[in-house]
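Chapter review: from sequence to fold.
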Amino acid sequence: MSVDQDTSQDSGDGYLSMHNGWFPSGWPSYLPRHQAMVLCMLFGTAAVRGLRGSLDEVVQQLFNGEPGAFFGRHGGTLDSPVVWMDDDELDYLETDEEKDQFCADAAEHQARCEGLLRDAGVEVPRTIRELADTMLALGIATVQDGVWSMQDPLPGPEAVLDLTDAERDEIADTRRIWERGPAESALLNHLTDDLGQPDEVFTSVGRLAAASKVSEDDVRYALGQMLQENEARLERGTPRSQVNLDDLKNHERFHLVVDWQHFNDNRIIVRRG
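The token string follows.
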């Protein structure tokens, strides 16, 4: 199982483990988002640290029977109700109309997800404990004779729920973003840390791939993102003119011209462990 370590939670040994496949799996869009995420961390921690026992016994081992902060609210327990919409999200909205629309959209989303679960023959959870049972029924985690495990990759909602083509496409797009994320970071780290954010580099897709230690396809994806965000352009010839990435072969040299001011003002980079 592939995991990240999260040191922000105090849980006995000082860390909780998050399965790297949770966010690209698609499940955050079809389960109570925050509580499903923390349960995924609980399952992952039990699996990685070899904790044995029932759900209650694992919670006892991790939190000494007081998991309230882990579940997002003071006094929270496995028998607390599930929350599909966090009230804190309303704090970022300014007008009553925006808040009313947000609540209406959230209620519609909850009804859609609950309907999908029912149609799949899966119990709609009302408590965090029931949500854990639902996630086990969906194959997100497994416990057998007190031994916890998680698949890699996690089974996605499209394998269980009757999703529309648009919903399946959205999951596929999300996965592509997450899967390409480390490669994109590698290229940007090369340009920033190794080369010091040069105004331009005379290079090729192949050379960038070798320097970044990622595949040529991944370099093309990362360059495509920079071009799409108007952070860079590609130039060739004498006199130089702008060229399309798709028209370049991997070995063909070009000038990569980067607008670092635009990049630094607008780009947020997420690094994964």
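Two observations follow directly from the output. Residues 2-12, 268-273 have pLDDT under 50 and may be disordered. The chain is about 45% helix and 10% strand.
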